[in-house]
Amino acid sequence: MAGSLLLFTVILPLLLGCVLAGIAFFTPARVALLTLATLAAILFIYYFLEGLPPLPPVSSKHKIFYIFIVLGVAASASQKINTTPQVLLTIGLLLAALFWIGQRKISADPYQLEIFLGLLPVIGAGILSATPQENRRQVFLWPSAFITLAISGSLVSILGGYIGLAQMLGSFAALFGGFLAVSYVAIYFLGRSATLANIAGLNWLLMVATSTILLSIAIFANKLSAVAFVLVCSVYLTPFITARFVGGKNWWTPFLMGGVSLVPALCAIAFAWAYSH
Amino acid sequence: MTKFKALSMAAALLLSPMTTAVYAADSYAIDEQHAWIQFAISHAGWSNARGQFRAISGGIVFDHDDVTNSSVNVVIQAESIDTNLEARDEHIRSPDLLNVEEFPTIEFTSTSIEQTGDRTALITGDMTLVGTTKSVVLDVVWGAEFPLPWDAATIKTGFSATTSINGVDFGINKLVDFGLGPNIDIVMDIEAVKQ
User: Fold this and answer.
1) Has this prediction a pTM greater than 0.95?
2) Residue B1 is assigned to a structural domain of this protein
3) Predicted pLDDT of residue B12
């Protein structure tokens, strides 16, 4: 049991992340192909952990699979539009996901704290989409925040009583880890560029997919610490701080980016731990 | 006298279908204070984890003359699960397992009944668990029916039933990840008051 858990939660997602970075750096794949590969990786992760969901979906967790598909289709298109429409697209899609996932809960009482917490990843993703296009094409800027977002979100979710999606965020963290590891080697050992035109769609898709899981955790984790979740969502803002390191050629630049995002993440984990004990 | 007897018999014959229609199928409400639904599920093969639900309601239509005309509806409040450890109950209530926020009730509604003995029957019905409905067969034994010793107006009947379901069939895939089941043995003991 532990072996298969490690295989499906860590090893396979890590390998998928390596493959994605490999495609991004070592093939002439354009945005559409790379986002398609990213979507495939995300769907594989879902399948590894939850199996194929029924159609039509029965529970909110099943809906996530179909939301991923919609986001994957939108990912290519999102890179062909300007910043403002992209922000609107991001917020619009994630709001639709929030209402669909939280349908039963919202219809019972739309003014619950959990619904407002679920809005935070929507807002975070919307704000992050507003970053300049040049930053969206950076290999480390967004993913270094995403890996922190996924790890802290996963731990806060476990402590909040929702282990299933915590596991999925953990797998996403492994995916980001694989991607970042191969990217690091490609850039710092093989001399590839840290700015890739085809990476923006991948970055956007990983961001909105992670946000979908986070908003679902906000709505349904029955012992979630609201403070911890707010702190997790503040990780969305860290690329605005770490953007100043973009272009740095030092080997430690990506670690610095990750380190900055760790500050609110560690606070989130500490709050969640204190809340659950 | 003979004429009177004949008339009486004719009247009895005429009335008997009405009598049957009124009394053959009686309605009962499940006595929520005397209803137990317990389950056992393998815990990684070490032992069986056991628990029960504390909030059970529903109704029974019981046709004593032809039990195949009877019907049962049982509604369980999923949140009322009790496995003797609150932290574990909280996790079972989460979307990983019972998902009580989205699916607050577990329901069984009979669709057909096959009498297998004087006091036994197989009740086939639709069980809805975490939003998924599957056909389930309950092996039922009827206990007894008589008025309460201290209240002759209140007539109580009672049944015991067993069944086994596969949690994965109902979409609870995480059972396997957590080393549970996936087969769940269910035992029901239900008393119901005639309405």
Assistant:
1) no
2) no
3) 46
